[in-house]
Fold these 3 entries.
Entry 1:
Amino acid sequence: MSITFVGLTRFSLVTQDSLTWFESTRYLTIEEAKQLVFDEGRLRLRLEIFRRYALPTYAVLTKHPQSYALIIINADLPAFCQKRLQEMIAPYPNIRIVQVRGGQSFKTPPKRLSVELAAGGRLFSYRFDDDDALPPSYIDMIRSHAETLADGTVISPINGWTIAPAPDDGIQMQNSELPCLALGLGVISSAERYLSAFQLGNHMTVHKRFPVHLISSERPLWLRTRHGYNDSVKRRPGPPPEDKPMLDASLELKKDFPFINLASLRVLHRPPVPSPAAEPRQLEPSSDAGMEAPAIGSGT
């Protein structure tokens, strides 16, 4: 049976059922969190980062047959931001914006549309953030594994690059290995019980709830960024990070992420605007604090 691929990416989404997941919003009301996250300067920078990382990823991946991307936003995201997102995705018919209205769970609208797109066939629902990227080989790689896996199996690419700004306009690069990282994490399902990637719960403990199939490669399978508006600086397992001149970093990354260029890396050096806004940092349950997910499942 053919497989439909649907990528899910939240863009500055604020909902009641996700407030407590993030350090900067966990003690706020919905109104307070939106004031923080919808700061104009923050949104304009996020749009530029999205344009350089997630958007070109989806532009490549949605060229495959039965491959789609859903960008999930609040229905009341500021109008200038919605307009710019619409302009950016306009050339790509298989990239769609999904609105979450007040009181809705962020999980419901993208699942409903994903099921419609699957049209009774098998579905692979995967996720990554608006400031990260996947390689053009991602769909073919996942397909080669998913075709032989049972429904309800989670697939996790485990190795990739983590990049961040470095002194003197350089780029810090670390080759990381981490099972069940959210980047490219997905689940295969069918009409008997369709699942979306947002139904898996905390990604670092997903192995406690679902069978997990790990995929490793000699080449990086994801690209994760760190910058002024995103998550913690927690080190991930792997060789020590290395600072490289921006041009050298760009040439290295282009081997697997051909859409990454100097402009993509420069945007990571842009400082946050002078406002109280900050990108929410996802928290992991206290019971798992300081722990990495164990090696589970199989894959090559």
Entry 2:
Amino acid sequence: MVDADQQRRSTVATVLARALPGTAPDVPLAMAREILDVLPDLRLLDEARAAQAVMEQTIERVRVELDSSPWAVELPPPGTTLSEALRAEARLLRRTTATKTGAYAIGFTAGFDAFVRALQARATTVAPQPRPGVATDSSAPAVPDDRPNNVRLAVSSRVAGLPADPAARAEYRRILVGNELVRYGLNTGVNSTEMASAVADLVLAALPEIDTLAEARDALQAREEELLALWHRLAVAQADCGLAAAETRWRNALARELRQQADAVTPNAGMTDSFTIGFSLASQSLARKLRARADEIAVLPVPTDLWALPKHHDEPDS
């Protein structure tokens, strides 16, 4: 996929090649790079769009978390280590899975036992980490840091530094591009400010988005305010449920262990005999149960960096 900067370089190079037909083939692209370097508005526009996309994904994640609250799920008591919790999950699997009958029953039972043994084996190697109690958890509840988004600040600063009048902005950019064209004059034949201005107008006409930086700033600020409000709501809701930082870390560590055990199961694409079919179906069935259990246990933590995309389930909490 061609990124926005590459696409712009190609567009500007095409404009220059048409406007300056006697130029050597490699010059327009080199000029395009130099011209875009003196137009930082476009780079900032790309950064604003990328930051907004991340915020919109995060907004959706936080909304889902709020909708699926209040994180009410049966868990072992405070003081239970991750190792003990994994053994408890293995016992739950043995108790809740129904006995299978039919041609693949032996394979199913073998697959079931192998899966549970793997979970029990992991319980012997996982790092000891006791679940905190409400009385012993000294970590503070999550409080979102409302520092402003750096990209929005950079865009706002650039917008404030540009001429407010549209005609004055256009002239300012025309001069920037024209200076680059004159600098390449020996290679292109651009030998006057009038000629440079005329070609610069063609270049800028091919980059109409350059004057949308103020709109990008406003959109970014709106998403920023929306996301900050959602993080505050989530922090309050989690605090009301006793989800201080240490409890959140323990729950997410347990959920991560369960997901990793589930993810270790891969479908047997070449299965044909009844034993293998039963074995594979048992493993996949238990993997689904563990993923569902992990989803119940996991908590979306309020991050230090509010503007970063929340970590995936298999990433450690900060």
Entry 3:
Amino acid sequence: MSESQHEELFARAVGDFRTAALPQITPPGPAGALQRARVRRRNRVLVLCAALALLTAVPATVLAQQRPAPVPVVNPTTTPIPSPSGTASPSATPSASPSGVSPSPAQVTPSAARPTTSRTSSGSGSSKNCRPGGFISVVNDGPPAQVEVDALPNLCAGEKLYFFWAVYRVQDANTLVLTSSGRSYVDHAHVRRSIGLPGWNGREDVENCYAAFIVQGRGAIKSTIPWSSGQEAFKGGSPYAAFTPLHWYPWHYYCDPA
């Protein structure tokens, strides 16, 4: 075997060894960090869902225990009419009663007192236990996002929970610009709403250079908002002062156009 064949065989063996050993010594890099971030977020969402289910079950149990017991209906009783003294016939009219005896009080008074508890008391229990100014929750951040009433039994009848949504895209290294928005509400007749959030592909997509917000209330929708590396993912707060059940910024290191 010639020297060149020996060198080629040796180089091939070194390449095979490098291919087999490189994945074991290469650090995880950005992909591994993103995978760990997804696992942490999934665990956080599971914990929040469990807490929400517990908070929803506790008021329902308390309301069931505080519901008033049904009041039994009292059967009217008839007081026997005492016979007037004398020998008058029972079929005689009161004017024929001897000695001017007046009719018995049992003939003119109600036979029984009406129950003090109204029949509609059980139906009005929800209005007595409701708390004006309820909250919305985002049960699925989409897309599409699912917005629903949080703790529906505590929402007063006829009350509406208004909210608006806004989607922004990266304009430059410091600014996000509005691309789409809308307003809606939830109530007893519309427990859940589906919001499309056009342009936003969900928080699991790190290549999605859009921001998304769902805000409770009827506040003004901003045309632009500031953007910095400190606001990406869950680290930045919402630019809206109202209660915000969803806020999401894009990853600055990936989406920065500079």
